[in-house]
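Example for tutorial group B:
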Protein backbone atom coordinates (compact mmCIF):
# COMPACT_ATOMS: atom_id res chain seq x y z
CA UNK A 1 0.00 0.00 0.00
CA UNK A 2 1.41 3.38 -0.98
CA UNK A 3 0.93 5.81 1.88
CA UNK A 4 -0.18 9.22 0.56
CA UNK A 5 2.32 12.01 1.06
CA UNK A 6 1.75 15.75 0.85
CA UNK A 7 4.88 17.90 0.58
CA UNK A 8 4.92 21.68 0.97
CA UNK A 9 7.75 23.27 -1.02
CA UNK A 10 8.19 26.72 0.48
CA UNK A 11 10.77 27.69 -2.17
CA UNK A 12 12.61 30.95 -1.29
CA UNK A 13 10.07 32.11 1.27
CA UNK A 14 10.01 32.65 5.05
CA UNK A 15 12.49 34.07 7.50
CA UNK A 16 12.94 32.05 10.69
CA UNK A 17 10.22 33.96 12.61
CA UNK A 18 7.84 33.60 9.66
CA UNK A 19 8.62 29.89 9.45
CA UNK A 20 7.91 29.46 13.17
CA UNK A 21 4.57 31.20 12.81
CA UNK A 22 3.52 29.06 9.84
CA UNK A 23 4.63 25.84 11.56
CA UNK A 24 2.83 26.79 14.77
CA UNK A 25 -0.46 27.23 12.90
CA UNK A 26 0.04 24.13 10.78
CA UNK A 27 0.80 21.93 13.76
CA UNK A 28 -2.52 22.88 15.33
CA UNK A 29 -4.43 22.31 12.12
CA UNK A 30 -3.07 18.89 11.16
CA UNK A 31 -2.28 17.31 14.51
CA UNK A 32 -5.14 14.79 14.23
CA UNK A 33 -4.34 13.70 10.68
CA UNK A 34 -3.31 10.05 10.39
CA UNK A 35 -2.51 7.68 7.56
CA UNK A 36 -0.74 10.19 5.38
CA UNK A 37 2.71 11.71 5.50
CA UNK A 38 3.03 15.45 5.86
CA UNK A 39 6.36 16.97 4.83
CA UNK A 40 7.44 20.60 4.65
CA UNK A 41 10.46 21.99 2.83
CA UNK A 42 11.46 25.39 4.25
CA UNK A 43 14.59 27.16 2.98
CA UNK A 44 17.95 25.90 4.34
CA UNK A 45 18.25 28.78 6.80
CA UNK A 46 15.11 27.71 8.67
CA UNK A 47 15.59 23.92 8.64
CA UNK A 48 17.30 23.50 11.97
CA UNK A 49 14.92 25.77 13.90
CA UNK A 50 11.86 24.24 12.23
CA UNK A 51 13.10 20.73 12.99
CA UNK A 52 13.06 21.56 16.70
CA UNK A 53 9.57 23.01 16.36
CA UNK A 54 8.39 19.77 14.73
CA UNK A 55 9.51 17.45 17.53
CA UNK A 56 6.55 15.35 18.62
CA UNK A 57 4.43 16.40 15.63
CA UNK A 58 3.18 14.32 12.69
CA UNK A 59 5.20 16.38 10.19
CA UNK A 60 8.67 15.76 8.82
CA UNK A 61 11.19 17.89 6.97
CA UNK A 62 12.67 18.11 3.50
CA UNK A 63 15.45 20.27 2.06
CA UNK A 64 15.01 21.84 -1.37
CA UNK A 65 18.37 20.87 -2.85
CA UNK A 66 21.76 19.33 -2.03
CA UNK A 67 25.24 19.04 -3.48
CA UNK A 68 26.68 15.61 -4.25
CA UNK A 69 30.11 16.08 -2.68
CA UNK A 70 30.59 15.19 0.98
CA UNK A 71 32.60 18.24 2.04
CA UNK A 72 35.28 20.64 0.86
CA UNK A 73 35.83 23.79 -1.17
CA UNK A 74 32.36 24.17 -2.71
CA UNK A 75 31.33 27.64 -1.62
CA UNK A 76 27.61 28.01 -1.09
CA UNK A 77 26.78 24.30 -1.31
CA UNK A 78 25.18 21.98 1.25
CA UNK A 79 25.93 18.25 1.63
CA UNK A 80 23.63 15.33 2.38
CA UNK A 81 25.22 15.00 5.83
CA UNK A 82 24.46 18.66 6.62
CA UNK A 83 20.86 18.21 5.53
CA UNK A 84 20.46 15.09 7.64
CA UNK A 85 22.07 16.96 10.50
CA UNK A 86 19.43 19.73 10.11
CA UNK A 87 16.69 17.19 10.82
CA UNK A 88 15.54 16.31 7.30
CA UNK A 89 14.31 12.93 6.07
CA UNK A 90 13.75 14.05 2.48
CA UNK A 91 15.41 16.22 -0.13
CA UNK A 92 13.83 17.65 -3.29
CA UNK A 93 16.06 17.11 -6.33
CA UNK A 94 15.87 18.46 -9.88
CA UNK A 95 12.99 20.89 -9.41
CA UNK A 96 12.21 22.60 -12.72
CA UNK A 97 13.16 25.97 -11.22
CA UNK A 98 16.63 24.58 -10.52
CA UNK A 99 16.84 23.15 -14.03
CA UNK A 100 15.67 26.49 -15.48
CA UNK A 101 17.57 29.04 -13.34
CA UNK A 102 20.57 27.07 -12.06
CA UNK A 103 21.44 24.93 -15.06
CA UNK A 104 20.70 21.60 -13.42
CA UNK A 105 20.77 18.67 -15.78
CA UNK A 106 19.71 15.04 -15.72
CA UNK A 107 23.35 14.23 -14.93
CA UNK A 108 23.49 16.53 -11.89
CA UNK A 109 20.15 15.11 -10.78
CA UNK A 110 21.65 11.62 -11.00
CA UNK A 111 24.68 12.56 -8.88
CA UNK A 112 22.43 14.22 -6.32
CA UNK A 113 20.07 11.25 -6.12
CA UNK A 114 23.00 8.91 -5.44
CA UNK A 115 24.47 11.28 -2.83
CA UNK A 116 21.11 11.61 -1.10
CA UNK A 117 20.57 7.83 -0.96
CA UNK A 118 24.13 7.21 0.23
CA UNK A 119 23.62 9.87 2.90
CA UNK A 120 20.40 8.35 4.25
CA UNK A 121 17.98 10.85 2.72
CA UNK A 122 14.92 10.07 0.60
CA UNK A 123 15.12 11.95 -2.71
CA UNK A 124 11.97 13.53 -4.13
CA UNK A 125 12.96 13.65 -7.80
CA UNK A 126 11.08 16.16 -9.94
CA UNK A 127 10.32 15.60 -13.60
CA UNK A 128 8.02 17.36 -16.03
CA UNK A 129 7.65 18.77 -19.51
CA UNK A 130 7.42 22.39 -20.66
CA UNK A 131 4.39 23.68 -22.52
CA UNK A 132 6.29 23.63 -25.82
CA UNK A 133 7.27 20.00 -25.22
CA UNK A 134 3.68 19.02 -24.40
CA UNK A 135 2.36 20.79 -27.47
CA UNK A 136 4.96 19.04 -29.61
CA UNK A 137 3.71 15.67 -28.29
CA UNK A 138 6.98 15.07 -26.43
CA UNK A 139 5.70 14.62 -22.89
CA UNK A 140 6.50 10.91 -22.62
CA UNK A 141 9.95 11.06 -24.27
CA UNK A 142 10.91 13.99 -22.00
CA UNK A 143 9.82 12.15 -18.86
CA UNK A 144 11.54 9.00 -20.07
CA UNK A 145 14.81 10.88 -20.63
CA UNK A 146 14.65 12.65 -17.27
CA UNK A 147 13.96 9.44 -15.34
CA UNK A 148 16.28 7.14 -17.29
CA UNK A 149 19.22 9.51 -16.91
CA UNK A 150 18.29 10.84 -13.48
CA UNK A 151 18.03 7.32 -12.05
CA UNK A 152 20.92 5.80 -13.99
CA UNK A 153 22.68 3.16 -11.84
CA UNK A 154 20.48 3.91 -8.87
CA UNK A 155 19.79 0.91 -6.62
CA UNK A 156 17.06 0.96 -4.02
CA UNK A 157 16.72 -1.30 -1.03
CA UNK A 158 13.04 -0.41 -0.69
CA UNK A 159 10.40 1.37 -2.76
CA UNK A 160 10.05 3.77 0.18
CA UNK A 161 13.55 5.13 -0.46
CA UNK A 162 12.51 7.22 -3.46
CA UNK A 163 9.65 9.55 -4.33
CA UNK A 164 8.98 10.97 -7.80
CA UNK A 165 7.15 14.24 -8.36
CA UNK A 166 5.54 14.89 -11.73
CA UNK A 167 5.42 18.65 -12.13
CA UNK A 168 4.45 19.85 -15.59
CA UNK A 169 6.38 23.11 -15.94
CA UNK A 170 3.37 24.86 -17.52
CA UNK A 171 1.33 24.18 -14.37
CA UNK A 172 3.81 25.56 -11.82
CA UNK A 173 2.76 28.87 -10.31
CA UNK A 174 0.43 29.54 -13.22
CA UNK A 175 -2.88 28.59 -11.68
CA UNK A 176 -3.25 26.18 -14.59
CA UNK A 177 -3.43 22.68 -13.09
CA UNK A 178 -3.17 19.54 -15.17
CA UNK A 179 -6.58 17.90 -15.25
CA UNK A 180 -6.76 14.76 -13.12
CA UNK A 181 -6.85 12.62 -16.26
CA UNK A 182 -3.86 14.44 -17.82
CA UNK A 183 -1.91 13.87 -14.60
CA UNK A 184 -3.07 10.25 -14.25
CA UNK A 185 -1.95 9.45 -17.79
CA UNK A 186 1.60 10.61 -17.03
CA UNK A 187 1.65 9.04 -13.56
CA UNK A 188 0.70 5.65 -14.99
CA UNK A 189 3.44 6.07 -17.58
CA UNK A 190 5.97 6.95 -14.86
CA UNK A 191 4.97 3.90 -12.82
CA UNK A 192 5.56 1.61 -15.81
CA UNK A 193 8.91 3.27 -16.47
CA UNK A 194 10.01 2.86 -12.85
CA UNK A 195 9.30 -0.87 -13.04
CA UNK A 196 11.41 -1.13 -16.20
CA UNK A 197 14.26 0.88 -14.72
CA UNK A 198 14.34 -0.40 -11.16
CA UNK A 199 12.44 -3.70 -11.13
CA UNK A 200 8.92 -4.82 -10.34
CA UNK A 201 9.00 -3.57 -6.71
CA UNK A 202 9.49 -0.02 -8.01
CA UNK A 203 5.80 -0.05 -8.93
CA UNK A 204 5.25 0.91 -5.28
CA UNK A 205 7.36 4.07 -5.44
CA UNK A 206 5.13 7.03 -4.64
CA UNK A 207 4.48 9.45 -7.48
CA UNK A 208 3.31 12.94 -6.49
CA UNK A 209 1.63 15.53 -8.65
CA UNK A 210 2.77 19.18 -8.47
CA UNK A 211 1.64 22.34 -10.24
CA UNK A 212 -1.01 24.73 -8.92
CA UNK A 213 -2.36 22.24 -6.37
CA UNK A 214 -5.00 23.98 -4.25
CA UNK A 215 -7.73 23.09 -1.77
CA UNK A 216 -10.16 23.29 -4.72
CA UNK A 217 -8.49 20.62 -6.86
CA UNK A 218 -6.72 18.24 -4.47
CA UNK A 219 -9.71 15.92 -3.89
CA UNK A 220 -10.22 15.33 -7.57
CA UNK A 221 -6.51 14.73 -8.19
CA UNK A 222 -6.28 12.25 -5.33
CA UNK A 223 -9.10 10.09 -6.70
CA UNK A 224 -6.78 9.02 -9.54
CA UNK A 225 -5.26 5.59 -8.91
CA UNK A 226 -1.64 6.52 -9.65
CA UNK A 227 -1.51 9.88 -7.85
CA UNK A 228 -0.04 9.20 -4.42
CA UNK A 229 0.14 12.76 -3.13
CA UNK A 230 1.12 16.29 -4.01
CA UNK A 231 4.10 18.62 -4.10
CA UNK A 232 2.55 21.98 -3.24
CA UNK A 233 4.17 25.38 -3.82
CA UNK A 234 2.18 28.58 -3.28
CA UNK A 235 -0.67 26.96 -1.38
CA UNK A 236 1.76 25.51 1.19
CA UNK A 237 2.60 29.01 2.45
CA UNK A 238 -0.81 29.47 4.05
CA UNK A 239 -1.59 27.17 6.97
CA UNK A 240 -5.30 26.85 6.20
CA UNK A 241 -4.88 26.01 2.52
CA UNK A 242 -2.04 23.53 3.16
CA UNK A 243 -4.02 21.93 6.00
CA UNK A 244 -7.02 21.47 3.68
CA UNK A 245 -4.79 19.89 1.05
CA UNK A 246 -3.36 17.54 3.69
CA UNK A 247 -6.94 16.66 4.63
CA UNK A 248 -7.89 15.73 1.07
CA UNK A 249 -10.99 13.62 0.67
CA UNK A 250 -11.51 10.84 -1.82
CA UNK A 251 -15.11 10.26 -2.87
CA UNK A 252 -16.18 12.53 -0.04
CA UNK A 253 -14.30 10.46 2.56
CA UNK A 254 -11.25 11.44 4.52
CA UNK A 255 -9.06 8.60 3.28
CA UNK A 256 -6.99 8.42 6.47
CA UNK A 257 -7.87 4.85 7.05
CA UNK A 258 -6.27 1.99 8.87
CA UNK A 259 -4.93 0.29 5.73
CA UNK A 260 -2.35 3.05 5.39
CA UNK A 261 -1.25 2.88 9.03
P1 LIG B 1 2.77 25.87 -7.23
O1 LIG B 1 1.95 24.95 -6.34
O2 LIG B 1 2.95 27.23 -6.67
O3 LIG B 1 2.26 25.84 -8.63
O4 LIG B 1 4.25 25.24 -7.27
C1 LIG B 1 4.40 23.91 -7.55
C2 LIG B 1 5.80 23.53 -7.27
O5 LIG B 1 6.71 23.93 -7.97
C3 LIG B 1 6.05 22.68 -6.10
O6 LIG B 1 7.37 22.22 -6.10
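The residue assignment follows.
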Amino acid sequence: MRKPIIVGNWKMNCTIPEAFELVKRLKMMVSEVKGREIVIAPPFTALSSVSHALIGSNMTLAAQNLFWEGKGAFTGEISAEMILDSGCDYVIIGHSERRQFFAETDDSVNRKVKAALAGGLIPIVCVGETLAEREAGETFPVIERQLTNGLNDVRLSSSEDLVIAYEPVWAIGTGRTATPSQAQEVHAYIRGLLKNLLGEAAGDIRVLYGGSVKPENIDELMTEPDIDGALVGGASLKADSFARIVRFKVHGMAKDTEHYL
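The longest strand covers residues 122-127. Compare this with the pattern of hydrophobic and polar residues in the output above.
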